[in-house]
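quick q for whoever's on today - can somebody do inverse folding on this one?? i tried earlier but teh output was garbage lol. tokens:
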């Protein structure tokens, strides 16, 4: 989950696989959501896609939407398509480089940032939404944007998932029929992966509003500009990605973005790393029940545990997080549900610090996380947006500030890192890079303990206006595969039992999924 098969495979088997993205949330549609909330919104958007390279030797293919997509992105024929990381300047040089490097080291950050004037002129090739990007190894990607007027106080950011994690069925866990002011506006953006995708949208789910259908080709996006109620649904004939936008109308300024996950990826247990801020500015978790009947949710935090009931038929429960604590939420009967969080969202001050993120299923967590984009402020002068991390059990969390495995300390496996923290179960820790930018930060454990992380503004540290960033993202778990190799005696050429010269038949499994079938032979020497 949350990772293409290619990033689960050992490097020797993954060289020909492509990790594929369509960059979401077109700038013109983002501005439409902003103008639904505020009147003073400029027509130039500062648009950012941040890409962290997680493995040495990664090659990236970048396909511009403006002149149509490649038929086969791994074998491009258009002159506008760029290939980065193969050392060939003739087919593209990545932004920020004078020459195309022959290889990217792990931890390399590529920042695709443009000022996008609207209306968009497709004759101008820019790094923006709808572009397609693919790679030979796993990438960690974030998307952020804001209008240059009024700046980063009205902005959003989300993690970007690869096409392997797209789906055909989505449900909005929140809606404009909720009483919280942050949900006065709820909209959806739907982007298709393939041509000829038919998308049926029902803004109120089982309610009285009739559904409608739109047709999308690959890379095309449709905006539902408000009016979405809890239980609103998106059903497509082919895989799509869906982003949720919420906002407080006329609050000067309050808007949050979320990446939604297909209903077939929903879980019965979630973990969140972000507690209420040290100054008391509240963080809330919203738990959505798609089941016909009420479900009981058992919760655990650093300071308490208990249970509550979430009503059936699109019921939502609001849970306020304690300070300095993450939380685990598990349905008592194993029923699937969905959850998201708004941070810095005290009703009396939601405009100053609010941001949101989607909770991750516990069974999707790993022992490592990498931050795709994590600046402390828009101009680099301040650091008000740390990484928030929580382990599911007591453990030591190692931090490599720049993800480059260069630091003053050495972990038990011989890797370099910068600092570590010994944390209790579900303890929430905010981590600030001294250089005021958390981008590419790598967090990990070595004892098998799972962690969950998010990046976003800390209301106890950040100021209420520019240059601080009123947005944040989920930090997706980095794939850490469990490899298992099994074998049987195929030919016994010597004495009974395993001896030199015998032939073994073997299989290699990754996370209990057979990737090399029986029939691979090896001679014992």
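ok took a stab at it. sequence:
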């Amino acid at each position: 989950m949350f990772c293409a098969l290619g990033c689960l495979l050992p490097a020797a088997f993954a060289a020909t696989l492509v990790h594929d993205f369509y960059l979401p949330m077109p700038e013109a549609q983002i501005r439409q959501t902003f103008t639904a909330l505020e009147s003073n919104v400029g027509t130039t958007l500062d648009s950012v896609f941040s890409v962290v390279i997680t493995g040495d030797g990664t090659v990236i293919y970048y396909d511009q939407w403006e002149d149509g997509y490649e038929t086969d992105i791994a074998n491009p024929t258009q002159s506008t398509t760029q290939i980065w990381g193969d050392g060939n300047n003739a087919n593209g040089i990545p932004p920020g480089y004078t020459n195309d490097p022959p290889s990217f080291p792990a931890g390399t950050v590529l920042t695709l940032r443009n000022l996008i004037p609207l209306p968009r002129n497709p004759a101008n090739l820019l790094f923006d939404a709808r572009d397609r990007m693919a790679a030979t190894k796993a990438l960690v990607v974030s998307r952020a944007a804001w209008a240059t007027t009024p700046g980063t106080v009205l902005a959003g950011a989300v993690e970007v998932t690869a096409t392997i994690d797209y789906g055909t069925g989505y449900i909005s866990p929140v809606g404009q029929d909720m009483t919280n002011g942050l949900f006065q506006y709820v909209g959806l953006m739907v982007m298709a992966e393939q041509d000829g995708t038919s998308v049926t949208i029902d803004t109120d789910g089982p309610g009285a509003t009739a559904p409608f259908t739109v047709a999308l080709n690959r890379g095309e996006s449709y905006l539902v500009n408000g009016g979405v109620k809890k239980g609103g649904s998106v059903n497509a004939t082919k895989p799509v990605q869906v982003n949720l936008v919420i906002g407080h109308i006329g609050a000067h300024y309050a808007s949050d973005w979320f990446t939604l996950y297909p209903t077939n990826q929903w879980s019965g247990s979630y973990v969140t790393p972000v507690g209420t801020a040290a100054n008391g500015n509240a963080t809330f978790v919203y738990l959505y029940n798609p089941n016909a009947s009420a479900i009981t949710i058992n919760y655990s935090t650093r300071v308490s545990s208990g249970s509550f009931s979430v009503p059936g038929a699109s019921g939502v429960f609001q849970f306020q997080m304690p300070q300095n604590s993450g939380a685990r939420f598990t349905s008592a009967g194993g029923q699937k549900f969905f959850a998201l969080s708004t941070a810095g969202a005290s009703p009396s001050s939601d405009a100053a610090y609010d941001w949101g993120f989607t909770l991750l299923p516990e069974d999707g967590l790993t022992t490592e996380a990498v931050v795709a984009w994590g600046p402390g402020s828009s101009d680099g002068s301040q650091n008000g947006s740390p990484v928030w991390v929580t382990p599911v059990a007591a453990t030591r969390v190692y931090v490599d500030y720049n993800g480059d495995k260069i630091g003053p300390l050495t972990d038990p496996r011989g890797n370099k890192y910068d600092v570590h923290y010994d944390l209790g179960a579900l303890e929430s820790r905010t981590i600030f890079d001294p250089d005021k930018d958390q981008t590419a930060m790598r967090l990990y454990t070595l004892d098998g303990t799972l962690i969950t992380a998010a990046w976003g503004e800390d209301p106890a540290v950040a100021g209420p206006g520019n240059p601080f960033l009123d947005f944040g993202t989920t930090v997706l778990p980095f794939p850490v595969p469990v490899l298992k190799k099994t074998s049987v005696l195929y030919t016994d050429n010597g004495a009974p039992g395993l001896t030199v010269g015998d032939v073994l038949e073997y299989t290699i499994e990754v996370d209990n999924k057979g990737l090399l079938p029986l029939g691979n032979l090896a001679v014992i020497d």
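fwiw Residues 1-15, 510-519 have pLDDT under 50 and may be disordered. also The longest helix spans residues 27-37. so keep that in mind when u check it
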